[in-house]
Amino acid sequence: xxxxMHESVGAVHLHSNVSDGSLPIPEIAGIAGSKSLDFLMFTDxxxxxxxxxxxxxxxxxxxxLIGYEINDRDDKNHYLAFRLDREVGGSTAADxxxxxxxxxxxxxxAHPAEKRNFSEAYPPYPWTDWDVEGFDGIEIWNQxxxxxxxxxxxxxxxxxxxxxxxxxxxxxDILRRWDRLNADRRVIGIGGIDxxxxxxxxxxxxxxxxxxxxxxxxxxxxxxxxxRPICGDDGCLPFAEAEKAVFAALEQGCxxxxxxxxxxxxxxxxxxxxxxxxxxxxxxxxxxxxxxxxTMVPAKGKIRLLQDGRLIQKVSxxxxxxxxxxxxxxRVEVFKKGRGxxxxxPIVITGKKDH
Length: 355
Ligand SMILES: [Zn+2]
Ligand SMILES: [Zn+2]
Known about the structure:
This protein folds into 2 domains: 6-244, TIM Barrel, CATH 3.20.20.140; 267-349, Immunoglobulins (Immunoglobulin-like, Sandwich). It contains 8 helices and 22 strands. It has helices at residues 25-34, 49-52, 93-102, 143-149, 156-161, 172-184, 213-216, 239-252, and strands at residues 6-14, 39-45, 57-59, 62-70, 79-82, 106-109, 137-142, 188-192, 199-202, 206-209, 220-226, 231-232, 235-236, 255-259, 269-274, 277-279, 284-285, 291-307, 310-324, 328-336, 339-344, 347-349. The protein has an 18-stranded mixed sheet that branches.
């Protein structure tokens, strides 16, 4: 395959000590740099204060972007809103989703399927308002939700001790919903961290820090592909250009999600070739004629190719290719050690020739 893109790896949906995280943004950026992350997207609750205080920018080679997490009156329908200079207000999901869009922002539905029920002190915050239109993406995998969902009084200490082993798969319901949405329009998928590095007080007296940032950064990552490196051998792009490049990749769905605890997924590619043209993830290819779908994985795994949520081909290895002419939402999942490792954004072959 030709024309390789530049890959940057980010951690999306982070809380700092501005809301319920435990450290200041510069310190978290320092930790991210030591874990080979290229960009961070912060979303403290209901405030863009850290952006107003000038905390966006480069920290060494780590790009820090600041958005915020909005919720409705019932503390449901959490929404990650980026690329905004001030808060949009609004008390329902319909309000804030449309306002983010009107103001040129970029919005992601957070932890849509959250079901945790371990403790009344930590209730679930699912997305309930699916009639809303105009969101840009969905957090298809949320580290905190998955961790909390499986917690019981019997396993909580094991989970605290081995937080990364509890990360297994995104919710199937959400993946299915995501596939269906993509049949009509592009809805991108990202992976979120969301852990606040908070302490839980067990039995009222033992404070235990769950998931320090250095551990969180070894879990769910969002990889983007850009034409120019945001930070290359001869230096990093000016902030405004780097910001633009990151959002352009995300908006186009030229990105994938990985669970780093199963291995570094840098180098994964899922592409389509049609009539001499190369299409990256997020592309919508007009139907008619045959399309070659190619997947490359940086280490061996169980590669699964899905069409509209249906498994159509699987292989154990580091390559998968197939040719098709059928319209559909095509995406790839790679499993390792019986767990989910990589989730691509889809390539869609539309039903119409000129669409
Ligand atoms: Zn939330
Ligand atoms: Zn959050």
